[in-house]
Amino acid sequence: MKMEHKELIVIGAGPAGLSAAIEAASHGIKVTVYDENARPGGQLFKQIHKFFGSKEHRAKIRGFKIGEQLLNEAREKGVEVVLNATVMGLFAEKEITVMIENEVHHVKGDAILVATGASENMVNFRGWTLPGVIGAGAAQTMMNLHHIKPGNKILMLGTGNVGLVVSFQLLQAGCDVVALVDAAPSIGGYGVHASKLARTGIPFYLSHTIKEAEGDDHVTGVTIAEVDEHFRFIPGTEKHFDVDTICVAVGLSPMAQLLKMDGVGMKDTRGGFVPDCDACGATSIPGIFAAGDVAGIEEASSAMIEGRMSGIAVAEYLGYTSKKAKEERESELAASLDSLRQGMFAPKNRGKKITETEEQIPISTNLLKHGYVADDEIERFPGFIHKAKVHPVIECTQNIPCNPCQSACHKGCISIGKHMTSLPISVSESECINCGMCVASCPGQAIFLVEEHEDFGLVTLPYEFLPLPAKGDRGVALGRDGCVLCEAEIVNVRSVKAYDHTALVTMKVPAAYVDRARFYKKGDE
Q1: Which CATH topology does 122-248 take?
Q2: C-alpha atoms less than 13 angstroms from C-alpha of 381 in its C-beta half-sphere
Q3: Any idea what DSSP says for residue 348?
Q4: Where are the domains of the chain?
Q5: Is domain 3-119+252-340 classified as CATH 3.40.920.10?
Q6: Sign of CA dihedral 200, 203, 204, 210
């Protein structure tokens, strides 16, 4: 069989692979990307939420839009993307076998970059093989790519960012999420993600896990129970839910099989069994590189930068750029990547018990246990202020790398400062013009516009559910804990292109509830 030749072979057309291909192609390298899926972009096209970070990290842009941007860049650079192409083997001398339309091709590259991503983990429990037990990523694929509801009544196992984000998207798809469950004693993902779920009324059960999935030929129910510090079930703590679907979000494992097949040096880490490579993804075999989740699980924003770093390293390896130019570009990208690896959720802080923010403010223990900041805790954070005129109230209480709220406000009402992980501050002496851009721009949906009057208050909140409420509708306002507080009337609904599908709903509530009302439900819900 004839051997084909490629200059750079990239395996995987996800955020890391496409970013690496774009960077390499921008230096003149002819790049071919193979991906087993019918559509390029990897996980990005399932991600309908807005990204965190700063402008350089494509913050406040929805994942699928970032995927479209990457594909357009790749086309402009002349990158060849071959779809429905399953790479079956990676062998010596940079040779791969790839199945395309039921035909096996042998291809040899001058360099190969592996960006195969990661696969979902599963956890065993009685009944875990029943139809209706699915990975959270599978549920996301069904909803956001194929527009199919994964189920009607769903229990989510796992409160990391994947479990939290997918739970919110299940609500957006019209599913009933009955509970979020996690064997860990505290929520693992961003507090803002948990809070936007808690205020809809979904309960969190920490230090709990699934004991049994019930049903004969499909899931009809689930029983959870509390676990002790050794993760053993505590008798008498069982809780039953009628559900038709169980979503599992218990982490990811790097898909490094191809690299291992070729004899690349591997290492066992807390993030999985990954290739032992340098900062630019160069492995123990010259000319073989790795980028993205295959080299260690992180967010898509990090994977894109890692891909760029690998792309410039390939350019130097193939002689398309100098070592000096490579080091300068690597330094620039490394600084951008390092800014994403700061804050409470930084890799260096994994496993640590953090009790204070960077500003020495005690963290919200209620947020970690129940998914929302308690009313008697919120006052201590700098984004929460009182003011007679309309003003932003920012309920972002953890140090995470994100700052679009600061750039969204052109009146200086919000300040983060020079450090992207600093807690946002609502500037008391500023003059808010009620444009709503800060509310719509916040990826964590943690900003509200509040207007305080003697007898009533107006609360403008982000809203991403259909159908939208209409002006004049009457319903109830819910607190941060998802409990009904009071009656509420919708006085304004704004949905403009600049808000990027985040509607701004303004509800009128009694003055006594203006600091607590954070969600709206129609009277018939």
Answers
A1: FAD/NAD(P)-binding domain (3.50.50)
A2: 27
A3: G
A4: 3-119+252-340, 122-248, 375-522
A5: no
A6: negative
Distance CA 523, CA 525 (A): 6
Q: Cα(449)–Cα(507) distance, rounded to whole angstroms?
A: 11
Alpha-carbon span 421 to 187, nearest angstrom: 19
- Return all residues near 4 (Cβ < 8 A) that are at least 6 apart: 105, 106, 107, 108
Pair 133, 107: CB distance under 8 Å: no
Q: Could you count the other beta carbons within 10 Å of the beta carbon of residue 285? A: 18
Tokens of 325: 């130019």
CA distance 42 to 413: 37
Which pLDDT does position 42 carry in this prediction?
87
> Which residue in 446, 380, 465 sits closest to 171, CA to CA?
465
- Residue 102: CB partners within 8 Å, gap ≥ 6? none
| Dist. CA 42–CA 12, nearest whole Å | 8
Separation of alpha carbons 405 and 501, rounded Å: 17
Given a cut of 80, whether residue 185 has pLDDT beyond it is yes
**Residues 458, 506: contact at Cβ < 8 Å?**
yes
Residue-level pLDDT at 1: 62
* Continuous H helices in 146-230: 161-172, 191-198
**Helix, strand, coil % in the chain, rounded to nearest 5:** 25, 30, 45
What per-residue confidence (pLDDT) applies to 341?
94
Helix axes 15-25, 300-317, angle to 10 degrees: 30
How far apart, in Å, do the first and last CA atoms of the chain sit? 64
Of 125, 285, 241, the closest CA to residue 275 belongs to: 285
> Using one digit for the tens of pLDDT, what is the confidence trace for 465-500?
999 999 999 999 999 999 999 999 999 999 999 999
pLDDT tens-digit readout, 57-79: 999 999 999 999 999 999 999 99
- Domain 3-119+252-340 and domain 122-248 have a common topology: yes
Collapsing DSSP states into helix, strand and coil, what is residue 8?
Answer: strand
Nearest to 199 by CA among 483, 504, 485: 483
Q: What is the mean pLDDT of the chain?
A: 95
Sign of CA dihedral 471, 518, 444, 64: negative
φ/ψ (deg, to 5) at 226: -75, 150
Secondary structure letter of residue 384 according to DSSP? -
Single-letter residue type at 283: T
Determine contact, residues 53/340, Cβ cutoff 8 Å.
yes
Residue count (the chain): 525
Bond from prior residue into 443 cis (ω within 30 degrees of 0)? no
**Closest to 298 measured CA to CA, from 38, 115, 446:** 115
Strands 204-206 and 176-182, how do they pair? parallel
